[in-house]
Design goal:
With 332 residues, the chain is α+β, with helices and mostly antiparallel strands. The protein has four domains: 3-76, 434 Repressor (Amino-terminal Domain) (Orthogonal Bundle), CATH 1.10.260.40; 79-110; 114-224, no CATH class; 240-326, OB fold (Dihydrolipoamide Acetyltransferase, E2P) (Beta Barrel). The protein contains ten helices and 16 strands. The chain has helices at 3-16, 21-28, 32-39, 50-57, 61-66, 70-76, 83-109, 158-165, 169-175, 305-311; strands spanning 114-120, 128-134, 137-142, 144-151, 154-157, 177-181, 188-192, 203-207, 210-211, 217-218, 221-224, 240-253, 259-265, 271-277, 288-295, 313-319. Strand 2 and strand 3 form a beta hairpin. Helix 2 (21-28) crosses helix 3 (32-39).
Amino acid sequence: MGNNQVGKFIQQLRKKKNLTQKELADQLFVTDKAVSKWERGLSFPDVTILNSLADILGVEASEILNGQLKEDQKLNSHTHISKKKKMVLFLLLFILVCVVIFWIFFKQKDSFPYQFVTTEELECSAKAKLYYQEGDRKIYTYCLSSIKVKEGENLLELKNFIQKKNYHLDKMIQQLTYTDGLWDGGTNIYSDGGNSAFSNHGLTVIQCHQMLEDGTYNNDIYFGPKDMEYKSNFCHSENTTYTKTYTILGMVPAEEEKSYYLTISLFQGEVNTVRVLSFYHNIEIGKTYEFEFTLSPDLVVDDTPKSIFENATIVSVKETDKTGLAQTQDPI
């Protein structure tokens, strides 16, 4: 479903609830600019807040994804398929199965001589790092200390391999197993568990194909371990990611539905109270967590817990046993 239809649908539901863009944004802990971009079809709500958005607007998340109510979907769908159409559908399915079988057989015969050889970081920084750039295409690594390509007995750094045989990179990625695709213009996720000839320890590759506001496409590539998951700031070159470490001192439900007030403290810092979505209700009092945030560059945010939690988007929360100066505290 196109962003424009989804955006119009969100706008209709918001107005039906008599909410302004700012009022809706405040309930979701995003900016009114973000809501405006959704409604104009320039961007799509982050998956981490989709259920909360649906609850506020009184619909299901699937209805937001489809840009229409289920009742409308039923009215727009065909209610009857003729016997002739069923036969045509069966024939097309049979042809597709034959093509897939032929493709698998052909692929097995077509020996591909390259293998990704990776080494994971001993302590993952949980941040994508720029590894190489060629033209407008950037290649990032995530939790990898090195990535090379093996051809026979030869072992080359990936960037050196790209410089020599750039046309092979996309083909190599496509040898991995396609696992998912995103509704952003064609971003694909490929993975390998490490039990094939294409990678030594397993690998996940995210191949971006997302339209940017200027009409061009982000064609960046992210390489990570086999358990790497897509993060909301991937394929968004304009967003910046920060990690802050907080100890949870208290947690109580807020008056606003589906949110909590957290009392948190920084190492050698003051105690603050902030509000978060109940999506993070699994955190426990007395434990320390690394909060990863993504922040749009057009926002001015003070480096204080209150300002950060009000303006930035939480990408992930994970428990940590780091203490003192070893804790991650990225400056904003």
